[in-house]
User: Fold this.
Amino acid sequence: MVVGSDRGGYLHDRMIEIENLQKNGIQVEIRGRVCFSTCTMFLGLPGTCVNPDTTFGFHGPSRSGRRLAPEDFDYFSQVMAAYYPEPLRTWFLEKGRTRINGVFRIKGTEIIRMGIPACRTA
Assistant:
């Protein structure tokens, strides 16, 4: 599956999508200009590759941009982090989740340095 620009969506919906992709052994190529929010959860799927020019955007869990209660924030942060490989998981829990308004932007080149393979060029 090729992911174009994807600004994210609802956590529950993305979890179902990822479960279906994993169950069917479908590999993901992230090739769009941006992959924000729940789109970044694809990074944990086996065989996922990224375009070095894609900009990834990370933020902590919220309810339509509003802060969650601390226990909910911690719980949903852990749910999201479980989809990331190391060292991205640790970075997200230490820094990436701290932003609610806006996103931490990371280029695909940095994601590749964290161990996610680059997609082959066509």
